[in-house]
Amino acid sequence: LLKKYARDGGVDYRGLKQDRAELAGYLDELAGVTEREFNSWVVPERLAYLINLHNAQVLLMVVDRYPVGSFRRVTGWWGGDPCEKPVVRLFGNTTTLNVIVHNMLRRHYAEPAVHFALCAAARGGPPLRPEPYLPERIYAQFADQGRVFLSTPPWNRVDVRRRRLHLSPLFRWYREDFVRRAGSLDAYVRIYLREDLAQAMRDRTFSVRFTSYDRGLNDVSSARR
Predict the structure, then answer these.
(1) To 10 degrees, the CA torsion angle through 133, 135, 140, 141?
(2) Could you give the CA distance from residue 165 to residue 35 in angstroms, rounded to a whole number?
(3) Residue 78 pLDDT grade (very low, low, confident, very high; cuts 50, 70, 90)
(4) What is the sign of the dihedral through the CA atoms of 18, 10, 26 and 58?
(5) Could you tell me the CA-to-CA distances from 196 to 93, 106, 152, 166, 193 in Å, in that order?
(6) What's the CA gap between 135 and 141, in Å, rounded?
(7) Peptide bond preceding 154 in cis form (omega within 30 of 0)
(8) Angle between the N-to-C axes of helices 20-31 and 43-65, in degrees from 0 to 180, rounded to the nearest 10
């Protein structure tokens, strides 16, 4: 489904809506995983499972309300935050997207690169890959996601002359995760920059300015063009 409908960092939701049953079937498969089975897996398997579960659920929520202008609207005008809606089936219970992100991924695995992988269904968010996350490749996929996202203006760019980093608000919202891993925000960002930019930042102080965040739906359907 991702290979078929994810492109240019966005999603052909109009097309995906035609394959809703297959997407829902995938979530049915993930719901069959028991907590005991999950706990027997190594970390890359757990990360891939949780990220794919999160992303597939986001896609299904959009598809079920499509056409819609943003992910925030998938619960309707009076439905509240969709990330707080108990719709994710996990270990025989129903939970929320926020529990997956904050109580599981962030709390137990301390891998800030997951923020480059989680689908926000927003134009301002990291791109959605046209493939699922796979345990044997997940860290390479994280690295590629980071490189792509940090080289995507206007959300992220480096102004070497003015010694300024222009970064997505994602780096402000989860700053503590990135700093915990690398010691500082600019040190973490350097990991994913082109070598010439990373070299230009070494031993120099760069200020940080956060850019805007476009919450509009990352829709690339033909009807939206």
Answers:
(1) 10
(2) 42
(3) low
(4) negative
(5) 49, 31, 16, 17, 8
(6) 10
(7) yes
(8) 140
By the 8 A CB rule, do 201 and 186 touch? yes
Checking if the pLDDT of 223 tops 60, the result is no
Omega prior to 132 cis, within 30 of 0: no
Placement of tokens 């980093």 in the chain:
165
C-alpha 197: how far from chain center: 24
- The CA–CA distances, whole Å, from 200 to 45, 69, 188, 210 equal 36, 40, 15, 20
Phi, psi of 211 (to 5 degrees): -85, 180
Helices of type H across the chain: 2-5, 13-18, 20-31, 35-39, 43-65, 97-98, 107-109, 138-150, 170-173, 175-182, 185-190, 195-201
Residue type at position 93 = N
As a whole-number percent, the residues of the chain with pLDDT over 90 amount to 93
d(CA 40, CA 147): 32
User: Which pTM does this prediction carry?
Assistant: 0.96
In 97-145 the beta strands, taken as DSSP E runs, fall at none
Are 158 and 193 in contact, with CB atoms under 8 Å apart?
yes
Residue 214: partners with Cβ closer than 8 Å, 6 or more residues away: 122, 123, 124
23 and 59 in contact (C-beta within 8 Å)? Answer: yes
